Amino acid sequence: MIENRPYATAFAHLCLILGVVIVAFPIYYTFSASTHSLRTILNPPLPLLPGREGWANYYQALFGGVGQIGGVNVWRLLWNTTVVALVIAVGKIVISIISAYAIVFFRFPFRMAFFWMIFITLMLPVEVRILPTYKVMVDLNLIDTYTGLTLPLIASATATLLFRQFFLTIPHELVEAARIDGAGPIRFFKDILLPLSKTNIAALFVILFVYGWTQYLWPLLVTNDNQMNTIIIAIRKMMSFADAATQWHLVMVTAILAILPPVLVVLLMQRWFVRGLVETEK
Prior knowledge:
It comes from Aureimonas populi. It is a multi-pass membrane protein. This is sn-glycerol-3-phosphate transport system permease protein UgpE. Its main location: membrane. Keywords: Cell inner membrane, Cell membrane, Membrane, Transmembrane, Transmembrane helix, Transport. This protein is an all-alpha fold. 69% of the residues lie in helices and 0% in strands. The protein contains 15 helices and no strands. The protein has helices at 6-34, 38-41, 54-64, 74-105, 111-120, 130-139, 146-150, 157-168, 172-180, 185-196, 198-213, 217-222, 231-238, 248-268, 270-278. Helix 4 crosses helix 8 (157-168). The longest helix is centred in the first third of the chain and has 32 residues, at 74-105. The protein is globular. The two termini are 31 Å apart.
């Protein structure tokens, strides 16, 4: 029986609405600023309602280029960031699922030693090994390349650990049944493990795509050419120390456009994302 408590329900809804307003207002304020001219933004208070310069601002950012970042337009920044985020997300998933498959279903010398070596890398984030990694990228001539942007971030001990823990829950009888039916390692992996891992892969893809999209430190170090900037780095470069020298209307436009792809990925995959997070038994 569900107890009818109208005041408690109304209070809960009020808290939820207040939380949504607190989270959404900065985004709305940024959108509103993106539709005003630079002169309006530099003369506070900024109007809360959208202005009339929205189309002109978005057209200039998308097709005209931004002076502070060498005339590169936002389409180029979005393309660079999309490539980086996709390669990191897909690469991490592929490497992790294959690593976990080998560790769980194959018996070879030093199997657990290799697993613990992967696990220990959790304690060595990019920030800790950034100098030797940068030196390797310079020696391999990978500065200002997509390979240099993605390769050092593509391995994931966390994803390997998650896939390993999931594979350990698969009944041994299922493995034996596949073996009796004549399924080899590749067929077992392709026809049984991958379908069972779909929700885990989807949840990890969403998390890793947002991780790749929001990277700042490594792209800042490994790119010198403005044509290879990611959108996060470009927003930082667009802001100058002098407030009046910053084209704030274009900064706001770029910030709004930078939000859209991760939001789109989360919305399109929210069903699989939630299932992948909550499902613990197959």
